Amino acid sequence: MQDTRPLLLDSDFPPLERTGVQTLQVNLGYVCNLSCVHCHVNAGPGRTESMGRETVEQVLHLLAREQIALLDLTGGAPELNPHFRYLVGAARKLGVRVMDRCNLTVLFEPGQEELAEFLAQQQVEITASLPCYLEDNVEQQRGKGVYADSIRALRLLNELGYGRDAGLRLNLVYNPVGAVLPPPQAALEADYRRELQQRFGVCFNALFTLTNMPISRFGAVLLARGEYQAYMRLLRDNYSTANLESLMCRDTLSVDWQGYVYDCDFNQMLDLPVLDSALLATDRRRHIATLPPARELAGSAIRTGEHCYGCTAGQGSSCGGALGG
After folding, report:
1. Could you give the CA distance from residue 261 to residue 143 in angstroms, rounded to a whole number?
2. What is the pTM of this model?
3. 185: helix, coil or strand?
4. What's the rounded Cα separation, in Å, for the pair 19 and 306?
5. pLDDT tens digits along 15-73
6. Could you write out the DSSP letters of every residue in 221-262?
7. Could you tell me if 48 and 80 are in contact, meaning their C-beta atoms sit under 8 angstroms apart?
8. Class for domain 5-312, per CATH?
9. Where are the alpha helices (DSSP H) in 122-227?
């Protein structure tokens, strides 16, 4: 697989500073039951990387020490980590809001028969990948049979109260098929609501539109098709300064499966660790166990590259959807 990292590091993207730490985004590993074309993590059934119990305990310690508001769990399929339920339960006891980035089909994997009920009992917010409301588009990105299983999962979650009850939020995530920017989020959300309700009786709380990032599996596909440079021009040509203030990296820390800390999930995939205390680039990775108090991170520089244009293009993009720029 071709690597886009060397192409992304030399960049004129404007400097950014951290405002604090409100969200801890934790990648529990690259094990997944799917191998999606747009996946910037290159996750799949053949991966073995998975966070261990000791690192999970360090995550919980940081949550308690810093009184972090949101634990954002991602992967791979985070639910396939053997310590997923322990981490969720312990975080909820701390009063932390927990979000699970779920691919929906994992609810029907062997050993996960009670997963949906567990998530509902813990009042875990589900942010579920559904790249389109049309079957053909979903299966282009995620494989045969994924669409039907995703709809079945959404119906199950609705039956448990997700998308209906105030304490059980269900958000959907849209990714474009190919090297284009997402359409306006509000209009697409209206389309999703209409189509999913009319066709399947499915309801949800919000739709997040995400720009495909030119890294890992998707970046390799762009290179193989000769589309990489054109896609980067598209991102740069649609850059919006208005999106800088709302970028998720400003108040989020990303933790990989081994416990090392990054400014965002995309920097994690590019192996770009947080900057050191002197605000100088370093190849020495900082571990969650040695992370200084969050107040000392405020004002520190954020590592940037060409991929950051993906978060600032057009309406903007973050793990919480469009930024509105």
Report:
1. 32
2. 0.91
3. helix
4. 22
5. 999 998 999 999 999 999 876 655 666 778 889 999 999 999 999 999 999 999 999 99
6. HHHHHT-HHHHHHHHHHTB-GGGGGG-GGGTEEEE-TTSBEE
7. no
8. alpha beta
9. 135-142, 146-159, 185-200, 216-225
